[in-house]
Design a protein that fits this description.
Blueprint: H1 4-11, E1 16-17, H2 28-32, H3 40-48, E2 55-58, H4 61-74, E3 80-85, H5 89-97, E4 101-106, E5 122-127, H6 139-152, E6 155-159, H7 163-166, E7 178-183, E8 196-200, H8 202-215, H9 221-231, H10 234-256, E9 263-266, E10 273-278, H11 285-293, E11 297-298, E12 300-301, E13 310-314, H12 320-339
Parallel strand pairs: 1-11, 3-4, 3-5, 5-6, 6-7
Antiparallel strand pairs: 2-8, 7-8, 9-10, 10-13, 12-13
Length: 340
């Protein structure tokens, strides 16, 4: 199986790389200066306000999503998977890889449409906040979702890797018929190490831990130690991330206003990505991404999220001066293509 998104990133390089959906990695030397190491499991229990039976440790979010979906299938709880478009490509292709029935739902500016598609034996599989649009279900809507899932005999698997950008308090997430997957690779990005974890329904988590023990045991203890330090310093991490992201958000809004006749922007406050839809001639996300690549700017075309109507642009991986230079190239390219 080939993931087009990953192939695009592996096979292209540019001076101005705006393809990342995370933030600049925190050097491990800087992590070490933040304080004492704790017990990673206990730290997670404190952050989410959950018991040990509601937790599983993985090597990353994708492994978590894979094992949760596998667990639901092995338990005989699901027959059909509902995904959305636009959506992160690995999420959209996983159900077919596991030979599960799949339906896709096109969304624009809300994930609440998912509620209308819950039925017995189904699982909603989606990122929250959505990658690439940033739209999300808040805590209140997640509880409403959990209630509907329980009533209808369905489940949700929620890739929540971006959730901490938009929700500072993660205690009290609904656990019944819902499983959330996380990792350090976005909010807590470290260059040399990564840890993932799963939080959710204890019946499903028990099966997840059995699958992990079978196919992917033993997350390296050193990774857990570094991740523990960051969990204990979440406030510092948030301020550090926002210090990178928000100046670039201001630049994005200022420069894209110059081409507002030709683009529309999907952006949720504090997210490290935005999505720019194109509204001129026959210009697609892929054609724009390739034109930008020829000018040394790397973005991600919408085709890898299931809808080739724009490009995703990262806000957290480069400094303000670099981002402004790259966005000026983006705006100039759009003006040339749409006004010419």
């Amino acid at each position: 199986m080939e993931i087009g998104h990953f192939t695009w990133l592996r096979t292209h390089r540019a001076r101005y790389d705006l393809s990342s959906s995370g933030v600049k990695p925190i050097p491990l030397s800087e992590v070490e200066r933040l304080g004492e190491v704790g017990n990673f499991i206990e730290d997670l229990m404190n952050v989410y306000g959950v018991d040990r039976r509601n937790l599983a440790i993985t090597h990353g979010t994708q492994e978590g999503t894979f094992t949760v979906l596998s667990a639901l299938r092995e338990l005989g709880l699901i027959e059909r998977v509902i995904t959305v478009v636009p959506e992160y490509e690995p999420i959209r292709v996983l159900p077919k890889f596991l030979h599960l029935q799949q339906s896709e739902l096109i969304i624009n500016e809300s994930l609440t449409e998912l509620f209308n598609h819950i039925e017995k034996g189904s699982v909603l599989l989606f990122s929250n906040p959505n990658n690439p649009l940033g739209i999300f279900l808040d805590r209140k809507l997640l509880w409403e979702l959990s209630d509907e899932l329980r009533r209808r005999g369905a489940y949700a698997v929620v890739d929540s890797i971006f959730l901490e950008f938009v929700e500072s308090n993660l205690r009290g997430l609904p656990l019944e018929n819902v499983v959330f997957t996380f990792s350090t690779s976005k909010f807590y990005t470290m260059a040399e190490t990564k840890v993932g974890w799963v939080v959710g329904d204890d019946r499903v988590i028990r099966e997840v831990n059995g699958i992990i023990d079978l196919v992917s045991p033993l997350v390296i203890d050193l990774n857990l130690r570094y991740a523990s330090i960051l969990l204990r310093n979440r406030g510092w991490v948030r301020e550090r991330n926002l210090g990178i992201i928000m100046p670039n958000v201001d630049t994005m809004r200022r420069l894209t206003s110059e081409v507002s006749d030709y683009v529309s922007i999907s952006y949720v406050e504090y997210m490290p990505i935005f999505y720019m839809r194109i509204k001129c001639r026959e210009l697609t996300g892929s054609s724009l991404a390739n034109k930008l690549l020829s000018r040394d700017v790397l973005t991600v075309p919408g085709q890898y999220f299931g809808k080739d109507d724009g490009v995703r642009i990262g806000l957290g991986s480069v400094d303000k001066d670099v981002f402004e230079t790259a966005m000026r190239i983006v705006v100039n390219t759009i003006n040339e293509e749409c006004r010419g």
